[in-house]
Amino acid sequence: METRELAFAGAAEQARRLAAGTITAPELLELYLDRIARIDPELRAYRIVLTDSARQDAGLAQDRLNAGERRPLLGVPIAIKDDVDVAGATTTYGSAAHGPACTQDAEVVRRLRDAGAVIIGKTAVPEMTIWPFTETVTYGATRNPWNTDHTPGGSSGGSGAAVAAGLTAMALGSDGMGSIRIPATWCGLFGIKPQRDRVPLAPHDDAWNGLTVNGPITRTVEDAALFLDVTAGESAFVTAAATAPGRLRIALSTKVPPPLVARVGKPQRAAVDEAGALLRELGHDVIVRDPDYPRTAIAHTLSRYFRGVYDEVQTLRHPERLEARTRSFARIGGLISEQRMKRIRAAESELSEQIQTIFDDVDVVITPGTATGPSRIGAYHRRGAISTLALVAARVPFQAMFNVTGQPAAVVPWGADTNGVPTSIQLVGRPSDEATLLSLAGQIEKARAWAHRRPPVS
């Protein structure tokens, strides 16, 4: 396999090649470091590349491989989103307001290291991970490798751009309002928001008042399943991804959750229609039906979102260094009292029950991944918090509802829009049923492969 193809082979395949001895861990790392040096100055997917520590870890991984040790990710380079702690590196949240370097790995990073992963660097995020675009005053703009005039999405925008451009085997993301699924969509990748509490958040438990989860952005379904196996403390997800799902009852829906107002674009609607046709050909029972979205659910979500950002700002060493838009966002969150937040959290079960009534009759709900393509770089410069939020919400209305319910949701690459930026479909499963989503996504991947696609900047 030539070096460029090896860069895009994915974590699971690289792990197999490392175990077989056809590539060494230092060689694989140097392949990525070379690509980052050549390609990332244009994309800015990484906030920092941990060159020295990664080289040390790759050498140790190779020693273990030579000794016959086998771990699921032994020697595989993985990037970490810059809202997750890596020992010896700062967690900046895309801001100059951060404190000193962390002394300990976050629990999810510890589990990845236990599986043998080599941590190659930390990927760029919007300040305080607020937005579905990745641009900051401190670190600049991260660009989409499919069309560099546009954002790769956010808040895991650096993770999405890095995987899409072949600058890492896989990347850790986090998702509080769609922040895995949005960049996975616009970067042509597979991304899954696991069931809440499936993957540890420690030491940042209950981030954004329970909306946020950690999860993978990957080239293949197998890679995402492997990530879940090693971070969730289970070992059934890779098996699920490789197992045919059987006949499922699947609902197609392009309804925008009220009271949001959004126009779903033609490429995004076409993706849902084409997915329905393919799934019928694969033997599934496909219907058109909308979830029963409560009209109060968006207000409920926004309250947890604003207050969550406010709470995180209180932990910063230098909050005075935050961008003006972020300070405004946090001030709004500070108006939501702890007592009100307790009432909002108590209402979650009722909202979730209403949304999930559709799963009494279906196994999976499919929506567009996003309503439109991504914004152009700089589109929201000099805009305030509320006007920015109103504009971005019209692009990504299908994600946040399932952060409220906590249930798993994934995006599968589909076609492309008129700007050459990928589109996707979103698969939503029953609570705790990642297995069905992985199985169905794996079936779609076999019928309509995407991992071979390469963006222009790669």
TrEMBL record:
Q: Name one GO molecular function term.
A: amidase activity
Membership in a protein family: Belongs to the amidase family.
Q: Where is the Amidase domain?
A: 27-438
- Write down the Gene3D superfamilies for this protein, in alphabetical order: Amidase signature (AS) domain (3.90.1300.10)
* Organism expressing this protein natively: Mycolicibacterium pulveris
Q: What is this protein called?
A: amidase
Q: What class of enzyme is it?
A: hydrolase
Which gene holds the coding sequence for this protein?
Answer: amiB2
What the entry lists under InterPro entries is as follows: Amidase, Amidase_dom, AS_sf
Cite the EC number.
3.5.1.4
State the reactions this protein catalyses.
a monocarboxylic acid amide + H2O = a monocarboxylate + NH4(+)
